[in-house]
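Researcher: I'd like a structural prediction for the single chain below. Treat it as a standalone chain; there are no partners to consider.
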Amino acid sequence: MAASGVEEDRPWQSYNTVYTNGKAGMEGVDKERVQKIVYEMSKGSKYFENEQRKESMINQKIEQLRSCYLKLTENDISHFQMLADTRELELEAMRDLSKLWLHVDMDAFYAAVETLENPSLRDKPLAVGSLSMICTANYEARRYGVRAAMPGFIARKLCPSLVFVPTNLKKYSHYSELTRKVFLKYDSNFVAASLDEAYLDITRICIDQEKSGEEVRGHSNLLLMCFLVSY
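Model: Treating it as a single chain, here is the predicted structure.
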């Protein structure tokens, strides 16, 4: 009963959405404060109703799985464990560990580009987007619980001093092309996953230059920074 009473007094504690999940730079955020603000500002909206519906479906699925589990015998569990172990060995045998891959994910890329072009934004909580929706937030803003894919009006409530910069995809595409010129120096067949993310096969360059993956990663980071600043 006591737990139920607490839940009724503090309903936001059980309200978990993508906005209350952590990202890099949000380690010290007061999660309860973020939950409370997101809950209060979302309550009654279509989004809120949809989140409640999804949570109800998840809880039903959990109960169904729990019910199925309770019906399993020891022989059933042993049988399925054997199947899982066999499949694990099959997948392990298929792994190709002969290559070294470098995954590049430029965190808060849009915000970093805006700060690069306008240094006065440095050290200020910054969000790229609008009061309707933000694309990304820099680390200063993340300390308040502000994050990508969050409505801007909620972000402003979390961080009243938040600076908004409108999205400019043409600008971000330009800087993305600059980074790709650097990637080509390491892998001519790199795979671009988005404007700020790519996968590079650095196996050959590690062999040719007799360097470890860590050394190549450090060098590529430095080259990226120097290349972007020069523009």
